[in-house]
Specification:
Elements (H helix, E strand, L loop, with lengths): L1 H15 L22 H16 L5 H15 L3 H13 L7 H17 L3 H14 L4 H17 L3 H15 L6 H16 L3 H18 L2 H17 L3 H18 L2 H17 L3 H18 L2 H17 L3 H18 L2 H41 L6 H67 L8 H28 L2 H6 L1 H10 L7 E7 L7 H22 L3 E9 L2 E8 L15 H12 L3 E7 L2 E10 L3
Parallel strand pairs: 1-2
Antiparallel strand pairs: 2-3, 3-5, 4-5
Length: 621
């Protein structure tokens, strides 16, 4: 009703001011909405352009619908946003500017992304790229949106590919919303792969730019990111402070999607603080906000967390209902067709990139041949000088090539480590959220049958108890495997407690372990701690599986030069090829992590057996 009165009042205003005179109207300038435009100002601009459209101005009808689609997107009405952008598309023709079409397809892709229709979103963003032309900021923004799709799907390697493409188009331009989108997505990738320090550093940078340029949407997003980092590193007071700051901005902007995420995070925070009575209304509010705008991913996460709260309260019937709601939404989003479409899109995109690279190389080769021919027919007096210049140029190119090769090797090592840890997280999440949720649902069903045991025979009761026990043991095994893939102790308490827990799980009757730690004055970044933990875990696994040892000694010490690790056992010793390029996957993994940290590793064995692994990590890797 308020919007209707707004339109009527604005129409009267334009009528009284003589705007119906078509001779006074011109085609609108191609100025598109920006992230720092308030929703109400976007709506007013749409009305102005609608008046020009009524007078037949070129592209005005399409531009009006673009503004309306952007308005609905800002207020979380993604289905209404899609409808408006489809109306914009219907208003285009062969004479419509390519940039207008690109904005329309990008808007449709954004609606599909927020409705969790990821294959459709990628298809629309790809079409938007075809029309984007020379608008580098807009093109960078599209790549940022594509990166968000893959980040939400857990494909961090592909997300980084598009973030790098976006930064290439920005060319060091930082005071714009496209750059803020790149920073926000990159911070999410770092946070989701355990690099909390890097994520917080990026969040601070993005927050400073968002406040300086007054882009409140991204100010809220970076505050929310910071709060998440604090929540997952066990700093609840800081997390709650930043969540409430983000929530105030989202409420003022009227963005239900962002408000849903904040309610969800606050509910998760209360659950982590073992306050389920406070967590339940927050999670229910998150689900309501997500349902109001079609934000299916938010609804799914809300039901998942709510099922966990009811399980904590031993309210198995409600936990089962919430689990079923979660599974229904999850299955509607992540099915085989979605995975196949994403994989197909990646293959097509990578093929196009390779073809472009081949064309560029062919053009460069052609230019080199032409240059060589021109030199060959030059003056004899200049041959010596040209030969000298050519040799100098060749040397510089080779030097640049070697430098680029080293840089690519470092980048590849970093991406392999990040991708490996992301894959561990994905597998752990799949075990916990997929098989774990299914077994939990089965266990809850069995628990729900318990009150009706009086109707069972003795044999049926015994069978039910055995089945419940087996399902419970399977749940425990899944949790154990998931914990090994991504140990919570490391994320919440640090390296030393995590290593102590790892050692405590070993069978002391078969292997006596001595652990010596001297790291009191040495601080490691969380990402480095994770890599060191993986190396120790791999060494211990090698001893348990292959060494036949009865004693294991682990030393962790640090000084100004860096961190030193020594793992020594009294087992059978190394084979001749171990520690070389022919060694197994475990040692290759250790070597790649040490290389990533710019460190060194050595393996050695004595004549009578036993193995010593010495690892050094410099203080500033």
């Amino acid at each position: 009703m308020q919007h209707r009165l707004f339109w009527i009042a604005l129409g009267v205003l334009f009528t009284l001011s003589g705007c119906r005179d078509s001779t006074m109207l011109k085609s609108p300038e191609l100025v598109f909405p920006d992230a720092n435009d308030a929703p109400d100002s976007i709506l007013v601009r749409a009305r102005v352009i609608a008046t020009q459209a009524a007078a037949g101005a070129t592209d005005a009808a399409a531009l009006t619908s673009i503004y309306l689609g952007t308005y609905y997107s800002r207020t979380g009405s993604y289905r209404q946003s899609r409808k408006a952008f489809n109306q914009a598309l219907a208003a285009t023709d062969a004479q419509t500017a390519a940039l207008v079409k690109s904005r329309i397809y990008a808007g449709l892709g954004n609606a599909a992304k927020n409705l969790a229709e990821y294959p459709e979103a990628l298809k629309l963003f790809s079409t938007a790229l075809e029309y984007s032309g020379t608008d580098s900021l807009h093109t960078a923004g599209i790549h940022g949106n594509i990166a968000q799709v893959f980040q939400q799907q857990g494909d961090f390697r592909q997300a980084i590919v598009h973030l790098n493409d976006a930064r290439g188009y920005l060319q060091h331009q930082t005071d714009n919303t496209s750059y803020l989108k790149v920073l926000h997505t990159l911070a999410n990738v770092y946070g989701m792969t355990g690099s909390t320090d890097s994520a917080l550093a990026i969040d601070e940078q993005g927050l400073e730019i968002a406040r300086r340029t007054r882009v409140e949407v991204y100010e809220s997003a970076f505050l929310n990111n910071k709060a998440n980092c604090f929540m997952y590193t066990n700093r609840p007071d800081s997390a709650r402070f930043y969540f409430h700051q983000s929530q105030r901005i989202d409420s003022a902007l009227g963005d239900p999607k962002q408000m849903s995420d904040t309610w969800l995070n606050l509910g998760m925070l209360e659950r982590k603080q073992h306050r389920p009575a406070l967590a339940i209304p927050l999670l229910e509010q998150a689900i309501r906000q997500a349902d109001s705008c079609g934000y299916r991913a938010g609804s799914m996460e809300g039901w998942k967390e709510l099922a966990g709260v009811y399980t904590d309260l031993n309210d198995y019937q409600r936990a089962l209902d919430a689990t079923n709601r979660y599974n229904a939404i999850r299955d509607s989003i992540a099915d085989e067709r979605t995975d196949l479409a994403l994989a197909e899109w990646k293959a097509v995109y990578e093929t196009a990139r390779k073809e472009d690279a081949i064309r560029v190389q062919a053009l460069q080769l052609k230019q080199q041949r032409q240059t060589t021919w021109a030199i060959s027919i030059g003056s004899l007096l200049l041959i010596g000088f040209l030969y000298y210049a050519y040799q100098r140029t060749k040397i510089r190119k080779e030097q640049r090539y070697r430098e680029a090769l080293i840089a690519r090797e470092q980048t590849a090592a970093r991406e392999i480590v990040v991708a490996e840890e992301a894959e561990r997280r994905r597998i752990a999440a799949d075990l916990h959220d997929g098989i774990g949720q299914t077994l939990t649902a089965a266990w809850l069903n069995l628990q729900a049958i318990q009150p009706r045991l009086s109707q069972f025979t003795t044999a049926d009761e015994s069978l039910l108890q055995k089945t419940t026990q087996l399902v419970g043991e399977s749940c425990a095994e899944i949790r154990h495997i998931s914990h090994n893939m991504m140990p919570a102790m490391l994320l919440h308490q640090g390296l030393v407690p995590a290593v102590q827990e790892l050692v405590s799980r070993l069978d002391s009757n078969r292997l006596h372990v001595s652990l010596s730690v001297d790291l009191d004055t040495y601080n490691l970044k969380q990402g480095t701690e994770l890599l060191v933990y993986r190396m120790l875990q791999e060494c211990i696994n090698n001893v348990v599986r292959h060494a036949g040892a009865t004693a294991l000694y682990i030393s962790m010490s640090a000084d100004e030069a860096g961190l030193d690790l020594m793992i020594e056992d009294n087992g059978v010793g190394l084979k001749s090829e171990l520690g070389t390029s022919k060694s197994g996957m475990g040692m290759q993994n250790i070597r790649s992590r040490v290389h990533y940290l710019h460190g060194s590793v050595e393996w050695s064995s004595g004549r009578d057996g036993g193995t010593v692994v010495a690892i050094h990590i410099p203080a500033t890797p």
